[in-house]
Amino acid sequence: MRTLYTLFLFVIMAMPFRAENKKLTLHDLIPGGKTYQSFVPQNIKQLQWFGDQLTFVKGDTIYIAAPDQPQKKTILLTKEDFSQFGIKQLPYITFPYGKQAIIEFTKGDTLYIYDFKNKEILNSLNLKGKNNRDLNRIAKNIAYTIDNNLYISDSNNRTKAITNDTNTGIINGQAVHQREFGIEKGTFWSPSGKHLAFYRMDETMVPTYPLLHAATKPAKVNNIKYPMAGTKSHHVTVGIYDTESNDTIFLKTGLPKEKYLTNIAWSPDESVVYISELNRGQDSLELRAYDAKSGKLISTLIKETHDKWVEPESPILFLPKNPKEFIWQSERDGYNHLYLYNTDGKLIRPLTSGDWMVLSILGFDDKGENIYIQSTEESPIEKHTYKVNLKTGKRTRLTQGKGMHNVSLSDNKRYLIDQYSNLNTPREIAVIDTKTGKRYSVLSAKNPFTAYNMPEISLGTIKAADGKTDLHYRLIKPVDFDSTKKYPTVVYVYGGPHAQLVTDSWLGGARGWDIYMAQLGYVVFTVDNRGSANRGLEFENVIHRQLGTEEMKDQVKGIEYLSTLPYVDTNRIGVHGWSFGGFMTTNLLLTYPEIFKVGVAGGAVMDWGLYEIMYGERYMDSPQENPEGYDKSNLTKRAGDLKGDLLIIHDDEDNVVLMQHALRFLDASVKAGTYPDLFIYPGHEHNVRGIDRVHLHEVITRYFEKNLK
Amino acid sequence: MRTLYTLFLFVIMAMPFRAENKKLTLHDLIPGGKTYQSFVPQNIKQLQWFGDQLTFVKGDTIYIAAPDQPQKKTILLTKEDFSQFGIKQLPYITFPYGKQAIIEFTKGDTLYIYDFKNKEILNSLNLKGKNNRDLNRIAKNIAYTIDNNLYISDSNNRTKAITNDTNTGIINGQAVHQREFGIEKGTFWSPSGKHLAFYRMDETMVPTYPLLHAATKPAKVNNIKYPMAGTKSHHVTVGIYDTESNDTIFLKTGLPKEKYLTNIAWSPDESVVYISELNRGQDSLELRAYDAKSGKLISTLIKETHDKWVEPESPILFLPKNPKEFIWQSERDGYNHLYLYNTDGKLIRPLTSGDWMVLSILGFDDKGENIYIQSTEESPIEKHTYKVNLKTGKRTRLTQGKGMHNVSLSDNKRYLIDQYSNLNTPREIAVIDTKTGKRYSVLSAKNPFTAYNMPEISLGTIKAADGKTDLHYRLIKPVDFDSTKKYPTVVYVYGGPHAQLVTDSWLGGARGWDIYMAQLGYVVFTVDNRGSANRGLEFENVIHRQLGTEEMKDQVKGIEYLSTLPYVDTNRIGVHGWSFGGFMTTNLLLTYPEIFKVGVAGGAVMDWGLYEIMYGERYMDSPQENPEGYDKSNLTKRAGDLKGDLLIIHDDEDNVVLMQHALRFLDASVKAGTYPDLFIYPGHEHNVRGIDRVHLHEVITRYFEKNLK
To answer: Which domains are delineated in chain B?
Structure first.
């Protein structure tokens, strides 16, 4: 019913909870706060699949239950079962080999792989200095890195160094390309574990950025490689290590050396490695097959281009029952969908289509006839799981109940653990039998705020500045709302790609600080402008070469909507955001001073020319290709336009948005005769985490209280 | 009449000027402001001695006049005389060889020494990359440094490298010991210019501090050697270069290597070099004589110790007519005075004494019978010039008119250019004939503020917290003062050693910002607490091992005095200071929150353990020797005591008080749950200079206006 959905303005609303006089504190509401955990909806510890059985932790006991009788638990393991390890509190465990009675856990610096049936330590590994651990289930080899080199340890604890680079500008076995393009790791075991593909990144040519670390006496510098837009980029190659011959070859990915080697995948027979190769310009993507033995290019199977950008984010996935066919994900029709290809590069058929997007693939069923996916088909602010028949394309929705569902498949793929929330539902956990559709409830969490006077939260849509696109907003009225009063408003914004703030999840996705501000008498408003996530390609790529422009127009539409509400005081509108949201906050104050009077910009990008290549050039092209775009979005050149109150907050060890952004904006303000305010969180990176986050939100709150109220 | 002076509370007062409605702006009042020069009392450009004749510049002409007829000027040189140099505007000139018709000036990167009578270029030197220029008048050699090495250029432009150190941790020919102990340069010509003594500093063992320079893309680090209190210090030695033999020897200053070699002086016959050697503990000073040929220690002439500190600041000075006798300056009787010694180290007699101090020696008269000095004998807030007879000790005051006199002696020492101001006198310039005492007026500057409604400024004294010592204060009433009103007050503070803020000079030494705040309706108050300059040893060294403690008690005495004034609103008292004054400001807010509600602390020392060795250990001893003192004065440990509004301002390239002070205080505040504010001036060093200084004072002003008013 997608068409109808876009025709009507729909509003769903969370009713205010019963009123009492208690007030929530920042410690209650901010992650890291002393009492924060008391207000996280009830959950089940370590709920996971052990084969096709449920396991979870209560107290010091690990329980097990049948999937269709989750309430009928029996003891699997107790703390005493770990006594030989000197463990005082149950560790976090996983079941690395499916239904085998084997668990993995760490104690101190040691990783144990332990057969709890036979009470036998199968393997132990001292993890000190080791990172990026990657276990292969079949061969039982563990790959890991120490500093910039890659190692393998087998089940007998025999260790081999796979690389031996002494130049610290060369990094092996780690995620590359700034973790863009879906890259989260640097090692890729072949199915059998006999071969290991790994990234090698040469960043010796990448400029160094010095991060000042002020905690030591004297301060010291931590030099990082930071590839700024328009400068030289790193060179990535892919090595293939053969555990039997001990040989390493490198795939002949050739020239130019500046390109993105993304989404590495093995063929089922382990003879071929597939790479989604993207040019530095990020407008031409090729799926290439390389011979895993010789490293030679076998063929280019698929080519996709776009005059704005192409963004590969998922590796290809072979059909379990047909090693000649695989699934390719593409936004070519405007939304991310699945396409069935064969290894000749021939499109067999699209598996999904429509004006909604596939969010992720969960896996195949045991017969290999269906694939489980998550998608936005129901609504862009919901996430549901579907079974898609590979032959017919027929989709069956498996998750019920409005909202955002996160699921995990059991070993035999028959059962799902389904965990979801929506605006009024804190957390529901159930097991779903994908065969029968039956649902076995595990937990219905209580509302943790019943003792408090909570604000009314509503979700709805408005039209974007293009006059046609629906934008989703979240509106929070002040606690103790009085419709005859006029309230100040704080807009919480992100606005950049890859993020969605408004979802039909608990409290509508509102953050604790939003609730806190509503308690203090603010309207709190958020709208996901064009450019944000989960709405398809065109919605997103309107931002190309002009970051901020269209995004801000949509934010202004949000303000226009607010101005229709009689209780909103349009003379007292503030805005707050972090990172891209800091860029938006600053930009909104500079561009629309008649609307936005007070802003708090955290970790803000002030000049895209100081941001990194992978993310930056995707959206902006390079500074050489798009000087006007960089110029126009360079807030340091517009510091003189500041009229309202702007608090800039930055972390002095921010390695994502460098503190140089803030310093150059300050310098520009000094030269232009404008007066932003400033705060710095020493020792923090791209956000303020831990208990210091409470301090941060007190600082933000005080700024609005002082200047907007 | 010193005794009387300390018995009575005396008040001198500047009457408010006639009222009009114009307001002074920060650009009018702050150095670097666009219109600042219009409000500097009228002056005479390049007024100096050419032998015993006066010269000065008006427009594009250099004039000359007889000392006793300063108004009867004739043309010495015009712009046209410089036409061969392509000079469009008259350069700054000096007369390096006294009354010889020779001038020195620079055009672009070139230094010219030019005989303007014979129109002959005697020497020219490309200064690019050259620093620390030091000309010997007799031999006409110029010493200078390039990077860390020392060179000499003779009058025929032949250049020799005196040192050849490739290790950049070794510095030759530059000021050492952080420019403490009166050290301002690193080269010392023997009288004839045949020998050059120079400093060599090995700072390879000194910790490096990384200053972040954010103006480049990417930011870069400027590593400086910063010897933090308690850490390893540099090793300084003294080289002697012989221009005839081209040999360099080093004085055998021996062990320990960590000591201070200060106040280098040559014997008149050039055979001996004298050094005031101070131990690292700074409590034992020895005047040592070294053989300039062999470098061997000849003798230790004088030894002075003190259980707090000894601080040599002036080299010995030989009598012109007796090469066996010299003048030694010492605070041994509690005030800096002159002592006549012979080269056997025997005290012949004190030349001056009393509860006042010699500020500087200007030189001898032509017969060598008298010495000219400046002292505080008249008043600690005035500075006068005296002639002291070397035989009888008889002092004759040469400068008349209350206030601060700065003088310069003519070539034959008969005449003084005397330039002075006092509370009500913007600037008076005259020539004084030291023989007859006659005064020939050169300039009486007009009050530059006559068109403005100025505040009433008064100077006075209060008792220090010790109950006996007089402290000098400056009180500025608000413009348009109304005695029935209650006004907020801003205390401007420095409070550290080596500085004096309250003097009987123009506006009482008030800064432009003080006047600006008075315009905005603030009382502006400054008191020089114990520890500040020009009051003698005991007044100063009460701060030893406990920086801040006694200084703050005296500041509280200032507030007690203010509270006796009916128009001061004691609920609205703020404080502002920079550097040591930033330390005081922060400390006052933390220690006396019931008094000080708002503070602006610039470039503040927050932890003396992060400050440098020479200054820091003099006053605090080392952290190892005085852990309690460092702990108690460490404001980062007391960040939790912050109750009022504190704005911390720091320059991110501050190489004196490192930005680490601010960052660590912020971090401590975050941990302690307190909320200082912050601003940073990127690219500035230990203060904000140039036009950005106007922005700084707008920021400071806004902070008080927002939080104190």
So the answer is: 2-39+448-707 (3.40.50.1820), 46-132 (no CATH)
